[in-house]
Amino acid sequence: TWVTVTYWLGFPQGERLRAGQEVLGRKSEVLFPLLLHFFTLVSVAGLACALALVVHGWRRARSGYHTAFDGTQRGPAMTAEGVENVARRVAVGCAILLLLGPFGGRTTWEKVRGTSSATDAGGYNAIVVVAGVAALIALGFAHWARPGPILSLLGVAAAALAFGLGVYATGVFVVARLQGGIWVYACWCFENVSPGWTVTPAPGPPFFALAALVGAIASVVLAASWLRQPNGDVVSRGPPSGEPAGGR
User: Fold this and answer.
1) What whole-number distance in Å separates Cα of residue 10 and Cα of residue 5?
2) Which residues, in sequence order, are bridge partners of residue 110?
3) At 46, phi and psi to the nearest 5?
4) Can you tell me the distance from the alpha carbon of 219 to that of 137, in angstroms, rounded to the nearest whole number?
5) How far does CA 7 lie from the centroid of its chain?
6) What whole-number distance in Å separates Cα of residue 141 and Cα of residue 144?
7) Burial level of 188, CB count in 10 A (0-12/13-18/19+)?
8) DSSP per residue, 22-52
9) Model's pTM, two decimal places?
10) Contact yes or no for 131/162 (Cβ under 8 A)
11) Which stretch of DSSP H or E encloses residue 111?
12) What digits encode the pLDDT tens for the residues 195-243?
């Protein structure tokens, strides 16, 4: 995380692209900007997961329940309630991240010799915000409709479709970059990079594509956890069976 963030802060976007081309050659026109975004996101996500594991282990240790190495049950493991809570929080968090779409930037073109420049339309920026708002509304409706199985599952399905829209709007950009071109949202079409222009790709699509994909997966997991509950009942939040309500 420190290495990638330092690199981000040390160079403007145009100099980052030119420096990458000098190091990696012509292929860096496609790979270098995308790989830098990817490694930055992976390192930050890994750091966040590591901190989350520390917090989870601390809370679990305080709860007094654990599973011994011999396989005997010494406390509540990951239950249906735990899966539901994690999936719901991940889906809501991804939907909130999509609301940051206007800060994802847009692709710009600058003529190598001259002062001409152009900026792409904010196509994905608006779409991911709409997808985030729709996902939040759908998840809120699904939570309100519990324990009704039909309405709650319809709400989760709508949230998954909203996330899918975000995946599509940003995924076409990522695929275009992998194919050596650029996705132009102004015409919603694929264009090759002209040799007389320096293209600075929008940094946002890889991040929002991953956020939307994780949100869609979390929505599916949430629906599956509800389907496994008998008669659509809400998971009990009490202690394990045989354990007194006041603990040991």
Assistant:
1) 8
2) 117, 198
3) -65, -40
4) 13
5) 22
6) 5
7) exposed
8) HHH-TTHHHHHHHHHHHHHHHHHHHHHHHHH
9) 0.64
10) yes
11) strand 108-111
12) 777 888 888 898 999 999 999 999 998 988 888 765 544 444 444 444 4
